[in-house]
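Input/output pair, single chain:
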Amino acid sequence: MALFALKDLKILALAGLILLGAHAKRAHAAETEVLIVAGGCFWCVESDFESVKGVSEVVSGYTGGTVANPTYKEVVRGGTGHYEAVEIMFDPAQVSRGTLLELFFRSVDPTDAGGQFCDRGDSYRTAIFVTNSAEKTLAERIKVEAESALGQKIVTPIIEASPFYEAEEYHQDYYKKEDLILSRFGPISKEKAYKRYRAACGRDARVKALWGAEAPFVK
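Output:
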């Protein structure tokens, strides 16, 4: 009888731990929020925001268009209506949505309606995607404040969120991949190719010219 009771206690204790673990997982999941923005080349936006404390992951993808499950070639060719965009997963206890939006505006050229830096066309335009009225109100306020700080008209639209399609695997974390690709310079890692592309495209130079010391990601 005592052995049976002891066994029961062990089962109850184990069940309690499982329930506690499930509750902790749900609580952790509830802490994570998502911000979707488009800032030109998604490799660069992913690289920038994965360096922010409180951001757990950034996923490159496509949104804002009319075609389901678009490919990279379809998006950059035009006609699908999609933006190159990213999903930023973050813990609001460590970094607020407002702070991320402030960083976003200061990491792009929000005065350019035709693309970003050397990348031209609709898929490379800037945008902020919102899911409810509170997110829209916040984004509009941060936009007005950024426009005042910049002293120029900001053309970045605030758009109701639509389905987000994750980009092909080879685009994810492109900026830190060590596998080799063939370039005009010969075999080179994706990490080095990304750094050369970013410099040649003039992203950091233009952001620094616009925002000066307020540019958060300019090395």
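The radius of gyration is 22 Å. The mean pLDDT is 89.
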